[in-house]
Amino acid sequence: MMVLVTGASGHVGANLVRALLTQGRRVRVLVHENTRALEGLDIEIVHGDVCDLSSICRACAGVSVVYHLAACISLGSAGWPLLERVNVQGTGNVVEACLSGGVARLIHFSSIHAMIQTPLSLPVDENRPLVGSASPPLYDRSKAEGERVVLKGVKRGLNAVIINPTAIVGPCDFQPSHFGRVLLMLAEGKLPALVSGGFDWVDARDVVAGAISAETQAVPGSKYLLSGHWVSVRDVALMTQKITGTPAPGFVCPNWLARAGLPVINRCYYRDGQPPLYTGFSLRTLQSNRNIDCGKAQRDLGYRPRPFAETLRDTLQWFEANGYLHSLKRFSDK
Question: Any idea what the Cα angle at residue 203 is, between residues 251 and 274, rounded to 5°?
């Protein structure tokens, strides 16, 4: 039974492909450009683009299950045309290819950002409405519209399940991700200051386990929040200090002050040729809902997110083992 993974070269995709191979599954991946995360793996690689329906149809030929992860992830720099083309129209192409190709099940990876966060005093669960079709931020809107496309496919007979993870962290972060860059800077003592707030961080391996369980156990048309643990940025820094021995930044900048200083902060990053660590979008997310309820996934899928401290230690050790960290002082398993 052949499984297709789009977005396989991304953070979650790299973990998913490895988990599927461990199960003895035959895996085909749709790759647009970067294949670094897939080197040396016993997989079938198909070069294509979710924005090209014909390439998706070719990739889906003879496939029974599709995991759709390919997406444009934006912290505020990408405009609506790109987000719509990849996250909305690209998802529509995957839906059409699955319907026309007789795919038995589609697992669509959405995001917690697709769902309205307010009121902050109440937990977010699967019953929270999606972000409005004209609402900012643009990334949130694009992921919500992608979900709506999948749900329309379900009404046409598509056997699909939607997965909404929170902020991803974990090993196999080859690119690395935005939060992976933050961890590397913390571990090497290159982050001058912190920002107040936090987020619900989830291990990429736990998201993968939940998605694989959903493949066989979820009801068609269902949806699952896959969350982890809310941890403040300050506590992430202190935990990184304990693991690596690198002192955490002493200054925690209030969120409002960081917003006011964004133009100056971003000019420094652009001058160095690096994407900014802090954007209006990222600062907003650090003030979003702390309580993301994964109870449905726990009941239906046996989902159990591991402790954040374990995820953080494994991530930093993966970075060290793969040559991303060059100034680590020590590692502690305590």
Answer: 50
